[in-house]
Amino acid sequence: MKSVLPVLTVVGTILLFWLVAVVPMNMHLVADQAQRDGLSVTPETPVERQEYSGIGLSLRNLHLVPLTYDFVRPRLPAPQQVAGEMYKTVFEKKITSKRSLVYHGWVTLAPTLLGFFIGTGLGILLAVGIVYSRVMDRSVMPWAIVSQTIPILALAPMVIVVLGSMGIQGLFPKSLIAAYLSFFPVVVGMVKGLRAPDGMQLDLLRTYHASPAQGFWALRLPASVPYLFASLKIGISASLIGTIVAELPTGAKAGFGARMLVGDQYGQPLVSWAALFAAALTAAALVGLFSVVERVTLRRMGMRTA
Amino acid sequence: DGHANSVTLQLQWVTQAQFAGYYVALDKGFYEEEGLDVTVLAGGPDIAPPQVLAGGGADAMLNWMPSALAAREKGLPVVNIAQPFKTSGLMLTCWKDTGITGPQDFKGKTIGVWFFGNEYPFLSWMSQEGISTDGGDDGVTVLKQGFNVDPLLQREADCISTMTYNEYGQVLDAGVNPDELVTFKYEEQGVATLEDGIYVLEDNLKDPVFEDKMVRFVRASMKGWKYAEENAEEAANIVLDNDETGAQTEAAQVRMMGEIAKLTAGSNGALVEADFQRTVDTLLAGGSDPVISKQPEGAWTSVITDKALN
Amino acid sequence: MIWAIAAVLIWALGWWVNVRLANGPVSDLPAVKVLIPAIFGLTVVVIWELLVVGFEVNPVILPAPSAIVERLFSEGPRLWADFHQTIIKGAMTGYVIGGLAALGIAVLADRSDFLTRGILPVGSFMAALPIVGIAPIFVKWFGSDWESKAAVVAVMVFFPILVNTVAGLRDTSVMQRDLMRTYGAGYWPTLFKLRLPAAMPFMFNGLKIATTLALIGAIVAEFFGSPTVGMGFRISTSFGQLALDMVWAEIVIAALAGSAFYGLMTLIEKRVTFWHPSQR
Amino acid sequence: MSSDKSVISARNLNLTFETNDGPIHALKDVNLEINQGDFVSFIGPSGCGKTTFLRVMADLEQPTGGSVTVNGVSPEEARRSRAYGYVFQAAGLYPWRTIGGNIRLPLEIMGISKAEQAKRVERVLELVDLEGFERKFPWQLSGGMQQRASIARALSFDADILLMDEPFGALDEIVRDHLNEQLLKLWARTEKTIAFVTHSIPEAVYLSTKIVVMSPRPGRITDVIESPFPKERPLDIRDSAEFLEIAHRVREGLRAGHLDE
Amino acid sequence: MSSDKSVISARNLNLTFETNDGPIHALKDVNLEINQGDFVSFIGPSGCGKTTFLRVMADLEQPTGGSVTVNGVSPEEARRSRAYGYVFQAAGLYPWRTIGGNIRLPLEIMGISKAEQAKRVERVLELVDLEGFERKFPWQLSGGMQQRASIARALSFDADILLMDEPFGALDEIVRDHLNEQLLKLWARTEKTIAFVTHSIPEAVYLSTKIVVMSPRPGRITDVIESPFPKERPLDIRDSAEFLEIAHRVREGLRAGHLDE
Ligand SMILES: Nc1ncnc2c1ncn2[C@@H]1O[C@H](COP(=O)(O)OP(=O)(O)OP(=O)(O)O)[C@@H](O)[C@H]1O
Ligand SMILES: Nc1ncnc2c1ncn2[C@@H]1O[C@H](COP(=O)(O)OP(=O)(O)OP(=O)(O)O)[C@@H](O)[C@H]1O
Ligand SMILES: Cc1ncc(C[n+]2csc(CCO)c2C)c(N)n1
Ligand SMILES: [Mg+2]
Ligand SMILES: [Mg+2]
């Protein structure tokens, strides 16, 4: 709660900057259009105008400034345009309509969640393997890092074709890409977490002659919970990005990714921008949700959170 | 059974009126009348229809012939079984004020081109004109064009690739007057290559069950196309219904359908050998880095259309 | 079937060798630390080759490793040009810009709790903007050449470096800070003599995460517009031409470059944060 | 005070750590007998091997030479049969378990029934004066209380041997005095054998039947001092001449060890 | 021993921390005079406000009532004029700086010339017996050596006042004795004024000209004991009857504080 005012301040600053930037970013296009509409523009030809920067051109054509805020096909839409589009597509459409962002949000969210569960599950299993087996640690960990250097957008179509050839379509291929992006932070975090117990805590169990399984349930797992939550928060937004990436090679049918693409393709920047912001808001909401669960869980476990 | 009557078609782009014939056939029950259960898979960036075909994800695909012939040379034996598009819709759209009046003026200019297997017609054309594509004052600087017309609007490029039915309209939608532009239709430049054709894997054709399925599929699809040509507005709305993104607009799709109708108008679905040969010749003339190296054999067949259209 | 059996056998063999190496007395030698993952990787590659050949997988779906290696050698100059365009020009420039910006903002944010509270949530919101959404916008803004790729990379690496640096700048104990107070030290001495050195281990965490993001960002952004050179351009174009061996050759380069970049940062980290317990 | 039954016996014990800066001789030729019911303190400058010695007895460290037996068997067997309770320098309670949960931990691991667990927890909490804190989390207790909880944890499964590594190191003198008294009472009552590491000379003298003075580089035993005090020891004995004399002897032993360096 | 010039003077000092569990009265009505050349020890159970009091003098904590002056001015002015050196309980050396670099830190901040820095570092390293360790990093030294380095750091800029918060808390008795001796020598030689927090009764008695006994909840001064020993104090005075008597008085004072709770 203490963060509300600071966040508003920062958001306000960004909005202000954005509002100012709208003018030079769109001025060239606006000037071209104004000329067609018979307004006076200096300099007079588009080719000459190319010589000027957006700011320079704006200063020379102050009377065109208002037009930059209400341009149909802006390079940088004004904030109120994006907000308007979002309002229209979130609140003014039935959520079952394919013109509703809520509908597309769900289309993206479902594979995100499935992929997140797969990725988290795999990540935890892998982390347990790495912590308990030296061979896994030594041979798999470096490759887990390498896996993250592979551009996913290059891999995605192949994965989807291979899965398609096995008759698997729909939700699952997207989830797999989402899982691929979310497993890594979970592995890294959980390896750290499972190794968090110090020598003394481990020695204590040794003096009790506890079995490895008992050590896992009584010590390593609970000790890793704070790390797990940190990973989950990174993992869920990675998962969402994975789904959106995967929406392109699965035939951009629906979902935030498809909206972004199609908006771009058919000259409707507002559609793209609204989808972009909606995606980021969804991620923020998911991360916020995990923060709440984290706080409750840690409190229940008696671990204080800062 | 399912195998004998189910068809999956892979499109080469997202749902739009470019594919109206198939959606109309689906919606109007033309496929059903043939006893077919058809699934239409939308395409998009990052989807290579030949690969989907190779992977068994689809029974038939739409493709531009240069891309399909290149795939053949890569060892993926795809065969054209029908050619609903008679005319090419591809063109270059340039700003008139750049001073471009003919292909030779491209020298020293920046041109946006689609890649992803769609660059072959352009490369062949430039090769025929003797213009290098490596930039410099005597060549053109090629940009890999994204999926929008912004490089032109923002004058990052002097010319971009457009389809008569889509991107060109978008340039106009952006407020540009046609008289600000110069266009070069590949068709008019004599370098037209065949666009949206229906392709299947060669091996599959040996299976009489599959062949029969395709005959019915092509027949119904062509019925769809002809219906779409005559009922452009309705067809556009059918496309809109099938667009799951909800981002397409009726105006754009109606206009697109109108333009598409011009490209399909001359075709009953059967491939005209001369068109095929012209495409091959254009590609073979591709200069130092030809798209295909030799006259393709068995790259098309009239068997299906012969049976489908009696 | 025989191929599948061979694959299983080779897997078992590789695993067995690694078990011996990892649990044996030599396991802590630096050479062995490299050898174990290498054997693991080699096993995977051999099995891949066996399965592709054995099951006659169509090369337009999955090429054999041998074909990829052949491409790596035969297309050397082109791969180098792509690497130069995407990694050196795009990714590196973006990495440096994003890193410096993050550092600057982190130092700024650290001046007041208020700013930190404001910047971190907004920053994490921006980090959640998917790359496939921002890449087309940046191509629109900065043109098709490497500048737009650098911009995408800068935005992608910004947040992890920012968060880690902010956390690092705060990772000073009360005692360490009080010590500076007892010297009557002002803001700048405290920053340069205490906060920044203390922040280094954290900063490198961020810098390491950012390495892989930088490569991915530069490559993926090329999918949305580029000149006719670059790793992302080549990947998407070759993919469209079904030249999957070339696609994989670029992927291999990306993985090599990414791992090398990561390794380099680890090395610098070792040098700079030699004093941190994790490095001793 | 102590019977003659040997509980721990070390013979020519050696332990060398291999480190990057070369080997460290943490224990050299250590010989020691601890009998049933003994309270043995280990005292010596930092790094003289006190902790290492205790850890060897607990099978947390492997000697590189010589032998130890605990209850006549190897430390490993002793550990497996849960022959001892170990108290670490810091309380080391698991923060996600309540005080009761922490004390129950060894009992759960040893597979003791729920009912029995509850009984034992109650008993040891009483023993260390922490009745009523069963449901609190560690951070809700002061350092001294946490340390008592960790002692309770070591007592809960009623091993005959207690190994304690500077359990009161972090506490202030008054609390420490109090816990010393309590520990002595417990020891007198239960007849356990206790090995106890400390840095404090008065503490060592006050508590022990036997004081083992150690010296570093290499870690070795330089003196073993038997204490003449009876099992019941009021705090005032610390002002007695006898006490001061023993303390003086310990101090001299320690100083000698320091001068060696 | 001490001149009559007042260096630190606290009048009706109060400090209350506002916490989630309500206010904590860390200092209540504290009055104290420390004169030039005094060696004042603060002793008392955990939480009685020793650290808080020292931090108030150092302007690291703001009193909520009453006033303190240091050298006649406010603590803040004193801090800005670098009037005191502060030694924390843990050495708190910056791990990325060598021992020499750590000692140089305050000198750099105060803008002292390189040549002078080098001279001073050499001198204080000698003072604390760490010649030759200038280029080592903190973790390459034992705890006792680190603590000495931190004292050297506080001495390097030659402030007249030394504030030391349990500087020897983590050390073993022998090392502690040694450092005590050294500190006394330094004090005798330099005539600094020293405020020294400790938990150890013998340490307080051995070092001080004045022992301030404190008691918690609320933190307050319960007794101020003047020590009759001369500035030069061999370690043996700790066996003298006078010493034991003072120690006894301190212990009684402490116990009384504990009983209050
Ligand atoms: N795991 C280890 N690896 C290397 N050296 C070690 C290890 N554990 C202890 N040592 C070294 O062995 C010596 C004895 O250490 P030990 O912890 O037993 O001393 P100690 O008497 O308990 O000291 P302290 O009073 O400081 O706790 C020291 O020099 C220490 O540095
Ligand atoms: N920053 C703070 N916020 C809230 N309470 C505090 C703070 N600092 C100290 N206290 C409380 O003030 C009281 C006095 O603390 P102080 O640290 O001065 O005690 P001390 O005598 O130094 O104890 P110790 O011997 O344990 O160091 C304690 O109850 C402590 O919990
Ligand atoms: C990645 C990719 N880029 C370009 C095309 C070429 N293309 C063929 S049809 C069509 C639609 C025109 O409105 C376009 C753009 C493609 N198929 N895939
Ligand atoms: Mg120890
Ligand atoms: Mg204190």
Automatic annotation (TrEMBL), chain A:
GO terms for biological process: transmembrane transport. It is a multi-pass membrane protein. PROSITE patterns: ABC_TM1. SUPFAM superfamilies: MetI-like (SSF161098). It comes from the Bacteria. One of its GO terms (cellular component) is plasma membrane. InterPro entries: MetI-like (IPR000515), MetI-like_sf (IPR035906). The chain crosses the membrane at residues 6-27, 101-131, 143-164, 176-194, 270-293. The keyword Cell membrane applies. Keywords: Cell membrane, Membrane, Transmembrane, Transmembrane helix, Transport. Residues 101-294 form the ABC transmembrane type-1 domain. It is found in: Cell membrane. Belongs to the binding-protein-dependent transport system permease family. This is ABC transporter permease subunit. It comes from Sulfitobacter geojensis.
Automatic annotation (TrEMBL), chain C:
GO terms for biological process: transmembrane transport. Keywords: Cell membrane, Membrane, Transmembrane, Transmembrane helix, Transport. Its main location: membrane. It is found in: Cell membrane. It comes from the Bacteria. It is a multi-pass membrane protein. The chain crosses the membrane at residues 6-22, 34-55, 87-107, 119-138, 150-169, 202-226, 246-268. GO terms for cellular component: plasma membrane. Residues 98-273 form the ABC transmembrane type-1 domain. PANTHER family: ABC TRANSPORTER PERMEASE PROTEIN HI_0355-RELATED (PTHR30151:SF20), ALKANE SULFONATE ABC TRANSPORTER-RELATED, MEMBRANE SUBUNIT (PTHR30151). This is ABC transporter permease. It comes from Sulfitobacter geojensis.
TrEMBL record, chains D, E:
Residues 10-241 form the ABC transporter domain. The keyword Nucleotide-binding applies. The keyword Transport applies. One of its GO terms (molecular function) is ATP binding. Keywords: ATP-binding, Nucleotide-binding, Transport. PROSITE patterns: ABC_TRANSPORTER_1, ABC_TRANSPORTER_2. PANTHER family: ALIPHATIC SULFONATES IMPORT ATP-BINDING PROTEIN SSUB, TAURINE IMPORT ATP-BINDING PROTEIN-RELATED. Belongs to the ABC transporter superfamily. This is ABC transporter ATP-binding protein. It comes from Sulfitobacter geojensis.
